[in-house]
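# nightly structure sweep
# worker-07 picked up a monomer target from the shared queue
# config: single-sequence mode, recycle default, output format = structure tokens
# input follows
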Amino acid sequence: MAEDEKFHWEPAPDPDSIVIPGLNTAAPTTDQIEQIDQLITLKLQVSFSALVSLQLINAHPLQKIDGQFARVQWLAEHKLLPAVKRYSNGVQPVREAARVSSTVETGSNEGAIAKMS
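# output follows
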């Protein structure tokens, strides 16, 4: 068997035949998707921990990336999103005036067209 054939994935012909240990099949679809995501994350964490404990990989670069990602997420949540919200609130009167102006112009044009007919 060739190396690329060994890891080739093919979908199950009947999706109902797929069994995922730990999945609550009675739950709504969105909850099942969340459960699958959590099961995958847990599996990856366990696999990663095993590789680190066997000293097959070095966790330090990945921890650095994780820390940087956490920092970016914090900046987006605490700096960027509040700034966007403030901007949105600041330009709300302009957006409202433009909407009203557009409505008035459209209405007056329709009246002018009706008078010409």
